[in-house]
Amino acid sequence: MVKRFVLLATAAAATPASLPAATLAQSIQGDMPQLMALYRDLHANPELSMQEVRTPAKLAPEMRKLGFTVTEKVGKTGVVAMLRNGPGPVLMLRADMDALPVVEQTGLPFASKVRVTTAQGVETGVMHACGHDTHVTAWLGTARRMAAMKDQWSGTLMMILQPGEETSEGAKAMLQDGLFTRFAKPSTVLGFHDAAILPAGQIGITPGYALANVDSVDITVRGVGGHGALPATTKDPIVLASRIVTTLQTLVSRENDPLNPAVVTVGSFHAGAKHNIISDEAKLQLTVRSYKPEVRKALLDGIARIARGEAIAAGMPDDRMPVVTVREELSTPATFNTDRLSQHVRRLFTAHFGADRVASPPPAMVGEDFSRFYLTDRSIESLLFWVGGTPKAKWDAAAGDPQKLPSLHSPFWAPDAESVIATATEAMTIAALDVLKAN
């Protein structure tokens, strides 16, 4: 696969200086053998968040060969590639490149066999179970088309390979490393994500809130331990933590406006070590999801209030109140697709691909740190769209029910990568050419 990847440079050198838009799909098809070789190589060699070394090392030289000015190690492992082509706006195209600690079970001939030991000391497989390998490949495919069509656009094309999306670190790290000050501040940012909720080749656009605020909350519930046969001499943290868990459900069911989506899930409950010992501590881990900032604040404030209130009701002294910690380093703000850009790109894609290939998926409660770029300056036009990845035959067999099919983050997620990459490359190129219209 390494030998086939080298062909990218040769093919790029042979690309005509410019191409009429009508031949875009044909040009992309001509690139696909080399792009698919790259995809299979990336899929077989995934890298965990903020540990991406091999991926940027392969892509940065290819961007330089296309004429981009390339800076590596931005935000630790990120890549910024700039192509200045006369006066005009600055457009940023982003692809994330990290993989997940998942043991792959797709059965693909190029399935990942990579194993690592995480920072927490856990041995695990590593897999592109979220399809970021398709993102990176389409990113390069788009760069090739834009470099070949320089006579059809004017402005600055800013293309970034972002690390650490899965841990919500990467966008923040690149911004803190001067992404918008050392290089340029874009007027428009675009990205895409492969999707298990759509059949391969279909595009999804969700204006407004598309993905959620995601907060991780730890609650340490403190009690007074003792013998299991003598509960009256203790303050049982398991009982108290159980009360907290059940009362937390009222935040959504009784305190939140039902027209404002919200989720509070207790994903982990740990306490005690033996049948006949009442422990002195219980630990809860929560994931909290919302869209609007005021809903997020109400949920987080409510969690702290309920934890303290239940402890008071249980007779806990002030020095044994629960400790509630919002893990800010793991938080991801909601992804907001600006209305003007969303509607314009929808019309653009509908005219180009046809109405049957442009869908309107509902907002989802998953998270994505793409939103950080828009939140840096809300005058930026921002859009993260979906490109369907579920193979058409499997989609049809499941009658279009995503619950009967592997989802993103599943060890069985094997998208129709060729369709995702070709569709995303075409869509990103069309959108980029529109934003950077030559006068």
From TrEMBL:
Superkingdom in the source lineage: Bacteria
GO molecular function ontology, one term from the record: metal ion binding
Stored InterPro entries: Amidohydrolase (IPR017439), Bact_exopeptidase_dim_dom (IPR036264), Peptidase_M20 (IPR002933), Peptidase_M20_dimer (IPR011650)
UniProt keyword annotation of Hydrolase present: yes
Domain annotation Peptidase M20 dimerisation: ranges: 211-310
Keywords annotated in UniProt: Hydrolase, Manganese, Metal-binding, Signal
Binding site for Mn(2+): 130, 132, 166, 193, 409
Cofactor binding note of this UniProt entry: The Mn(2+) ion enhances activity.
GO aspect biological process, one term: diaminopimelate biosynthetic process
Signal peptide coordinates: 1-21
Any Pfam family matching the protein: M20_dimer
Cofactor: Mn(2+)
PANTHER family attached to this UniProt entry: METALLOPEPTIDASE, PUTATIVE (AFU_ORTHOLOGUE AFUA_6G09600)-RELATED (PTHR11014:SF63), PEPTIDASE M20 FAMILY MEMBER (PTHR11014)
Protein name, as recorded: Amidohydrolase
Naturally occurring in which organism (per UniProt): Sphingomonas lutea
